Amino acid sequence: MTGGVATLGETMALLSVPANGMLREPAPVGMGGAESNVAIGLSRLGVPVTWMSRLGDDALGAHVRREIRAEGVRVLAARDAVAPTGLMLKEHRNGTPNRVRYYRAGSAASRMTEADVDADAIVAADVLHLTGITPALGAGPRQAMAYAIEVARGAGTLVSLDVNHRRTLWSDAEAQAVFAELLPSVDLLFAGVSEAAMVLGAPEGPGGWDGGAELAAKLSTAGPRTVVIKLGPLGSLALAEGTLFRAFAERRAVVDPVGAGDAFVAGYLSVLCRGGAVDRCLATGNQAGGVVVTVPGDWEGLPFAGELSQVIEDEVIR
């Protein structure tokens, strides 16, 4: 095993409205956040991982901390005595999730600064994984992320970034400006087709394998050595050091699509941390994403290593 992964970002408590749409009785409290989803996914796949953040000094923050730690993730998150832990509300219709509302303005995580970044954890890691959600939370989190990247670059730690664009947090124009500053310092970039087009400030094309490859080529000119495009049910592709790789996804019955992208990233990074080839990274990412959508929840269905089926070599095309 290697030094594993360090990650930084907000995780919120989660309330789920029952299928009848009525919140009349106390609802079970869950939690979710892109970076902690990835951290849990990595831990279940046997990779050491540290999650850094800021939580409210409240019952919801204690719940988030306890749940993430219970998954074997090292938690480094200060307790904010003033600001609360963020909250999201998931609504269901016909037995499946159909809308998520976020209550995160003024949350503890929105008050993150570089003081919440543990430099030693980043130096010890092989990969620093970040998402585009953190800089969207405000100036402090943006500063924290910039500092984390600075530490990683100085230590030779690979910098991984998932675009994870949230239009409820900021506009496309704001995001484009920030990503233009970030990409030269990023080694590994993850994006969906629409996210890649947004970063480039281009209209979304037809997608598919050819469209994804074109987007990856354009993004690679901005700095990342490897660009991974997530193509949903089709699979995924990567342009790494000028070589294009593709991996087809297995067909799955989708129960809840939330968390599929995070599961994909966890699967990809788990192989990368062990020195695996790009095609194997893609295939494992596809498998992990495919497993998590078959059960409700953002992270509950994240697979353990033994659950990932053996990839048929013919399904992976270079």
Compile the SSE list and pairings:
Blueprint: E1 5-8, E2 12-16, E3 29-32, H1 34-44, E4 49-56, H2 59-70, E5 74-80, E6 87-93, E7 96-103, H3 119-124, E8 127-131, H4 133-136, H5 139-155, E9 158-162, H6 172-182, E10 188-192, H7 193-200, H8 208-220, E11 226-230, E12 235-240, E13 243-248, H9 260-272, H10 278-292, E14 316-317
Parallel strand pairs: 1-4, 1-8, 2-6, 4-5, 8-9, 9-10, 10-11
Antiparallel strand pairs: 2-3, 6-7, 11-12, 12-13, 13-14
Fold and architecture overview:
With 318 residues, the chain is an alpha/beta fold. The chain has one domain (35-53, 112-317): 3-Layer(aba) Sandwich (UDP-N-acetylmuramoyl-L-alanine:D-glutamate ligase), CATH 3.40.1190. 35% of the residues lie in helices and 24% in strands. The protein contains ten helices and 14 strands. The strands form two sheets. A ten-stranded mixed β-sheet has the order 5-4-1-8-9-10-11-12-13-14, sandwiched between helices. α9 (260-272) runs antiparallel to α10. The longest helix is centred in the middle third of the chain and has 17 residues, at 139-155. The chain is globular and about 50 Å long. Residues 310-318 have low confidence and may be disordered.
